[in-house]
Sequence to fold (189 residues):
Amino acid sequence: MMENQNNNFDTQPTETVMEIKPRRVWWKFAVGAVIILILAGGGYWAWDKYFSPQARKNAETQANYQKYLDWQKSYEAAMTADTYGGKTPQETLDMFIDVLKKGDIELASKYFLLREDGSVDPKWVEGISKTKETGKLVGAIDLLTKAKPAGSVMSGYFGFEVRDDNGELVEDISMRLNKYSGVWKIESL
Fold:
C-alpha cells in the first residue's frame, strides 16, 4: 500500500529539481556579466572620448581649429570689404598721393594693407600724422610723385623705387594685391 501511495504523488525526481536551480543562477550570472561588460565598455568609451589626456588634447585642437575657421571667415570678410585702392599698383599710388595732397590722413591710412585682424594699422596713421605735423608732408608727396615702377617677379606683389640724382635708392614702396577685393594695397613705404 505504501508503494501505491508513492505512485499517486505527482512529484518530480530530485535530479530534475537540481537541474532547474543552476539554470536560474546561470541566467542571473549571464545578465550580471553583460551589465558589467556594458558598464566597463561605457566607462572606457567615456574615458577615451572625454577624460583621457588624448581626448583633452583632441578637444583643444578642435577648439583651436574652430577659432581659426572663425578668424579666417572674419578676415576674408574684412578683406573683401576693403575697397580702398586701385585696380593697378600705379592707380593705388596715384590715389594715395591725391588723398595726401588733400591732407586726409585717415583716408590715406586706408590705402595700406590691413592687419591680420582686418583693421588699419595705427602705425600708418601715426606716421602720416607726424609727417604732416613736422611740415614734411609736401616733401613726402614730392618724393612719392617721383616713384618709378620696379616690378616684381612674384605674382600679387609690385614695387616702386625712388632714386636720387646719383641713382641711389631713396625710397622703396612695396604693394600687394588684395585678392579678396581685387585692389592693390601699400604694404610698406
